[in-house]
Specification:
Shape: elongated
Distance between the termini: 46 Å
Order of helices and strands: HHHH
Helix content: 55-70%
Number of helices: 4
Strand content: under 5%
C-alpha cells in the first residue's frame, strides 16, 4: 500500500514539475497578476471584465464552478489550473518519456 501511495505521489510530482506544466502555471499566474493590476490601478468602464480572463485561461475545468455560490468560482480557477497543469505535464511526460528506436531488431 505504501508503494502505491509513493508511486501516486511520484507520478503527481513528475506530472506537475516539468516545463509544460510549470510554463502553464506561470501563464496563469501572470494573467492573475495582470487582472489584479488592471482592477486596482486602471480606471475604465469595463474594469470588471478583466477577471473573465482568469476563467478563460483555466477553462474548461473552471467553467464547471462558475454557477456555484460566491467563493467557489475562484476555487474553480485554482482547481482548473491544477487539473490543466497535471494534464499538460502528463502529456509532456508521455511525449518525452518514450524510448526512441530501442526496441528494433538490427538485421546486420
Amino acid at each position: 500500500m505504501a508503494a502505491a501511495q509513493r508511486s501516486a505521489g511520484t507520478t503527481f510530482r513528475r506530472s506537475l514539475l516539468n516545463p509544460a506544466a510549470l510554463g502553464y502555471l506561470a501563464v496563469v499566474a501572470a494573467v492573475w497578476v495582470w487582472i489584479g493590476v488592471d482592477t486596482l490601478f486602471v480606471t475604465h468602464a469595463d474594469a470588471g471584465m478583466a477577471g473573465v480572463w482568469g476563467f478563460f485561461v483555466t477553462a474548461p475545468t473552471s467553467f464547471l464552478f462558475v454557477s456555484l455560490p460566491d467563493p467557489l468560482p475562484f476555487v474553480g480557477v485554482a482547481v482548473g489550473a491544477l487539473v490543466q497543469a497535471l494534464a499538460l505535464g502528463a502529456v509532456y511526460r508521455w511525449l518525452t518519456g518514450r524510448p526512441r528506436g530501442h526496441g528494433r531488431a538490427s538485421h546486420a
